[in-house]
Design a protein that fits this description.
This protein is of the alpha/beta class. 34% of the residues lie in helices and 25% in strands. The chain contains 11 helices and 28 strands.
Length: 429
């Protein structure tokens, strides 16, 4: 029986393990193991909502162990420590609790086929002071830290009878930075209804700092301009062509020597693969530690190792590289699933071709802007407002369908509707 190990329970890794479990695991054609250092899964594009409290991860997070039991695969908690390609084993580092007590010792897992789906982390480009003073919104822990610090700032302001402002600086005008800026205005609006009458948008001083010429550089200029206009209308101070050269406890310093004061700083300016992936097990990596893959999504130096999601450096026929997006991870998971089945059946593996179905950016409950059908040669259709919001939410629903199927996703949507009546709109603890 083939042993298939998937490392990383993000959007692509969890969808792949689920699909493999439902088919090969259920029929006992393969042993499927999913490895992740967390105990639960949360869709990464939702982290900005967790950070502001508009999403309760306790309700929306998915337990890996429970999901594994229901979908015929095994779950192992731990962080990847190394890969031995000759012996075909991966080693996992020990797991300790918050008191540094050993919970799970170092261990090895054997594989016949290995899939790496570890994802990415924020890239601080070695900017002085960033790692010590900024929050990176790339994990649930960082989102929790942001929410805790944000709530403390709001409490201080409320105790001071609304005198002063909460100063927040966000570096990076990509989707994360833009969505977080809007979500913060939604959060203070909600707080106003929960007894913080002296707090409103005028008490929120948000600087969104982008080094490039415009925010959302990956999207067409008209969508970028629309989002820029929406943010300015909300009261966000959008600063383009502003490069940050240093961060300290008081705020940010720009290339021009200007100081941007901030009590809370978020760094969301670019991604890279984790540093320990650099040349891991002799596999080919690029300058941001991504693993270089062939069009079949197998590594260039080992056909038994596949890579999906942000960790994969995958060049397309036109010379462009697949962008680090949730839709790419979803598509890669589907292609690797079919290629693994083909490999087990000694059939030919097919190349992965990225299809751009467009991009959407949520400006919280205020608006959503984006483009659909980005892969059409005649151009894309710009959508905004209520229709865009529905499509944005539907992208998350597609992820849920891949994990749970249509019936269970329908029940999750129903529970969500009920919770909107039973629970506060903002997580206040």
């Amino acid at each position: 029986m083939a042993r298939i190990v998937v490392v990383g329970g993000g959007a692509g890794g969890l969808e792949l393990a689920t699909k493999l479990g439902r088919t090969l695991g259920r029929k006992q054609r393969a042993e499927i193991t999913l490895v992740d250092r967390e105990t639960s899964h949360l869709w990464k594009p939702l982290l900005h909502e967790v950070a502001t409290g508009s999403l309760d991860e306790g309700v929306d997070a998915l337990s890996y162990r429970a999901h594994a039991k229901n979908h015929y695969f095994d779950f192992q908690m731990g962080s990847l420590d190394g890969i031995n390609r000759e012996r075909k084993v991966i080693s996992l580092s020990e797991v300790r609790d918050e008191n540094d007590e050993l919970l799970i010792p170092v261990r090895e897992i054997e594989y016949d086929i290995l899939v790496l789906a570890i994802g990415s982390k924020s890239n601080d480009f070695n900017t002085p002071g960033v790692r010590e003073n900024c929050i990176f919104l790339d994990s649930p822990e960082q989102a929790h830290l942001f929410r805790k610090e944000m709530n403390n700032l709001f409490l201080k302001l409320h105790a001071n009878h609304g005198k002063g402002t909460v100063d927040i600086a966000i570096v990076g005008g990509g989707a994360t930075g833009v969505e977080l800026s809007a979500e913060l205005h939604n959060a203070i609006k909600e707080l106003h209804t929960y007894g913080f009458e002296d707090l409103d948008s005028t008490k929120l001083n948000i600087n969104l700092v982008e080094a490039g010429e415009r925010i959302l550089p990956a999207l067409p200029p008209r969508i970028s301009a629309s989002a820029h206009h929406e943010l300015v209308q909300l009261g966000v101070n959008v600063r383009t062509q502003t490069m940050v050269t240093q961060a300290d406890s008081e705020g940010l310093v720009t290339k021009d020597g200007e100081r941007i004061s901030a009590q809370l700083m978020v760094w969301a300016a670019g991604i890279k693969a984790p540093d320990f992936m650099k040349d891991i097990a002799g596999l080919e990596t690029n300058r941001i530690n991504q693993l270089v893959v062939k069009p079949t999504l197998q590594t260039t130096r080992d056909d038994d190792v596949f890579v999906i999601g942000d960790l994969a450096s995958c060049q397309q026929e036109d010379g462009s590289f697949v962008p680090p997006r949730a839709q790419a991870a979803h598509q890669m998971a589907s292609r690797v699933y079919r290629n693994i089945v083909a490999k087990l059946n000694d059939q030919e593996l097919k190349n992965y071709v990225y299809k751009d179905y467009g991009s959407l950016v949520s400006l919280s409950r205020f608006s959503t802007v984006g483009s659909l059908m980005g892969n059409l040669t005649k151009g894309s259709m710009m959508i905004e407002g209520r229709i865009a919001r529905i499509v944005y939410i539907s992208l998350y629903r597609m992820h849920l369908v891949a994990l749970h199927g249509y019936f269970k996703t329908g029940l999750i949507m129903l529970v969500g509707r009920i919770n909107r009546v039973l629970r506060p709109n903002l997580k206040l603890h």
